[in-house]
Write a structure and sequence with these properties.
By secondary structure, the chain is mostly helical. It is 67% helix and 0% strand. The radius of gyration is 23 Å and the shape is globular. The N and C termini lie far apart (61 Å).
C-alpha cells in the first residue's frame, strides 16, 4: 500500500546522507523530506484508512516509524550541531558525552519495550500499534516532533524514537572519533584483534549490500555507511568507496553475486556432507544390532 512512497523516501534519504553537504545542511534537508513524507502518509491514511487491524498494526509498527525515526534523528543532529561548543576540544567531548548519558538513560527507562521489539514479539501489538488503545498507554516525547491523535498510536512514536537514537549513537561516535582520532575504542566493544578480512573487497561489498537490503540490522534503520563502518572496524580493513565497488559488481558479466553464490554452495555442501555422515552412522548402528 505504501511501497512506492517508502522506496522514494529511502532513495532520497540516502542521497542526503551521502551528499557532500555539512551535517547541519543535511539535517535541515532531511527534516523537510521527513515532514513532507509524513504529511503524504497522513493524507493517505485519512483518505483510505485501513482494511483491518493487521494492516493498521503493520503501518504503525513498520511503515510510519521509518520517516518518523529519521525526522527525530535529523532533529537531534540539528540540535547537536547548533548547541555543541564552538571552541575547545574537551568542551565538545564533554558535551557529546552528556548526549551519550541521555541516550543510555532513555534506553534504560524503556528497556522492557526495547526488549519486546528487539525479540520481535507481537502479542501486544494490538495495544501498542492500533489507535483504539491510544489513551491506555500515553507517551509524551520530550520533543513534540509530529504527533496527531488520528495518526498516532500509543507506541509508534516511542518505537520511532528508539530507531532514531540507534542512528544518533553512530553520529555521536563519529563526532567523538573526529575529536579523538587516536582513540580507537570509542563505543567499540572488545573484539578479536586477529580478525582480518583476507578475501577480496568486492566479496565483502556483496555481503554488506545484501545485509543492508535485508533490513535485519537495527530493525532496518542502519544505513549503508554505518554498516560499512562496522565491517571496517570488525575486520580491520578500509573500504575506500563501497558505492564504486557496487557499481563494479553490477557491471560484471555472468553471475554478479559470485561470492554470495559461493557461500551458498559451500554451506549446502557442508550440510549435505553432514547428512551423509549421519546416515552412515545410522546404517552402522543398524548393522551392529
Amino acid at each position: 500500500m505504501f511501497e512506492k512512497e517508502l522506496t522514494m523516501f529511502i532513495d532520497q534519504v540516502d542521497q542526503i546522507i551521502n551528499s557532500k553537504s555539512s551535517a547541519l545542511t543535511k539535517s535541515e534537508l532531511g527534516i523537510r523530506l521527513c515532514n513532507s513524507t509524513l504529511s503524504e502518509l497522513q493524507h493517505r491514511v485519512e483518505k483510505e484508512d485501513f482494511e483491518d487491524a493487521a494492516e493498521e498494526i503493520n503501518f504503525f509498527r513498520n511503515i510510519k516509524p521509518l520517516p518518523m525515526s529519521y525526522l527525530i534523528y535529523f532533529s537531534e543532529v540539528r540540535t547537536c550541531e547548533l548547541s555543541i561548543p564552538k571552541v575547545g576540544t574537551q568542551q565538545k567531548i564533554r558535551f557529546l558525552e552528556k548526549e551519550v548519558k541521555k541516550i543510555n538513560k532513555f534506553f534504560s527507562q524503556n528497556k522492557e519495550f526495547v526488549s519486546y521489539m528487539e525479540q520481535s514479539h507481537n502479542y501486544l501489538d494490538p495495544e501498542y500499534f492500533t489507535r483504539n488503545n491510544l489513551n491506555n498507554f500515553p507517551f509524551a516525547p520530550t520533543i513534540n516532533y509530529y504527533q496527531y491523535p488520528d495518526f498516532s498510536t500509543s507506541h509508534d512514536m516511542l518505537w520511532a524514537m528508539i530507531q532514531a537514537l540507534y542512528k544518533f549513537i553512530h553520529y555521536i561516535r563519529d563526532q567523538l572519533q573526529k575529536l579523538q582520532p587516536d582513540n580507537k575504542n570509542i563505543f567499540q566493544q572488545s573484539q578479536p584483534k586477529l580478525l582480518v578480512w583476507s578475501g577480496a573487497k568486492t566479496s565483502l561489498a556483496e555481503l554488506i549490500y545484501a545485509l543492508y537490503l535485508t533490513g535485519d540490522l537495527n530493525h532496518g534503520t542502519a544505513d549503508l555507511k554505518t554498516i560499512t563502518s562496522a565491517f571496517e572496524d570488525f575486520f580491520n580493513i578500509q573500504i575506500e568507496n563501497i558505492y564504486k565497488t557496487y557499481s563494479e559488481i553490477k557491471n560484471r558479466k555472468g553471475p554478479r553475486t559470485k561470492y554470495l553464490h559461493h557461500l551458498i554452495t559451500l554451506l549446502e555442501a557442508k550440510m549435505n556432507k553432514d547428512e551423509e555422515g549421519e546416515s552412515g552412522e545410522e546404517e552402522k548402528d543398524s548393522d551392529d544390532e
